[in-house]
Amino acid sequence: MHQTFDAVLGINLLHANQQGADQNRSHFDEWGITCFNIMSSPGAGKTALLECTLAALSDELKIAVIEGDMTTNLDAERLEKYNVPVIAINTGRSCHLDSKMVAGGIHRLEDEYNPSEFDLVLVENVGNLVCPAEFEVGEHAKVTLLSITEGEDKPLKYPIMFQEADCLLITKIDLAPYLDIDISQIAANVRQINPDVEIIPVSSKTGEGLEVWFNWVRQQTKVKNLGVGV
């Protein structure tokens, strides 16, 4: 059976991207940096979560952000006030960051700072529930956000994103009293696809659940960095 041209092209693109991702990860490992790839649909609360995370953890962890967006630097500007390096990448028509784009961000980090001083790089991917999950960027863990306003069925309709996640944040739970939504059903639908994923309900507005998320970040960063050179 012959594969279509589009199928072969897709396989080749993913293969080339994976090679770049492996190279990016080798740089992070060399420097003792943990990298998280943070993904969601538009408006699920990625930037708000990063604001809370930087406010809570930037005194104890040396953090840099690679901020992906299609056209503007609006999200990057929101994060710069936390006095951490924020490297903005505009993807143009591309609906996701790829390993080559993130490699450009890594080179900028290397040119402007001493990367071995950093503990954690947070990559905020472009808002999309499909493509970002397929294109690794060199991360050690994938973090997916799902807002309760998106409904209970999204994990079943967009399974790859949730299958690939190491941690799922169910966001905007402060809105639950105003919506006909069952957070436990969201979790159950995710578990059908990814039984082992860490699920953390959070609200960036009220702070509910954020300490659980912060502890997960601390643990993952500590575990990864303790493994450098082993």
Automatic annotation (TrEMBL):
UniProt keyword Protein biosynthesis present: no
Domain CobW/HypB/UreG nucleotide-binding per the UniProt entry, residue ranges: 37-200
Gene3D superfamilies: P-loop containing nucleotide triphosphate hydrolases (3.40.50.300)
UniProt record, GO biological process: protein maturation
CDD domains in the cross-refs: HypB (cd05390)
Record has Hydrolase as a keyword: yes
Molecular function GO labels: GTP binding; GTPase activity; nickel cation binding; zinc ion binding
Family to which this protein belongs: Belongs to the SIMIBI class G3E GTPase family. HypB/HupM subfamily.
PANTHER family: HYDROGENASE MATURATION FACTOR HYPB, HYDROGENASE PROTEIN ASSEMBLY PROTEIN, NICKEL CHAPERONE
Name of the featured protein: Hydrogenase accessory protein HypB
The organism of origin for this protein: Nostoc minutum NIES-26
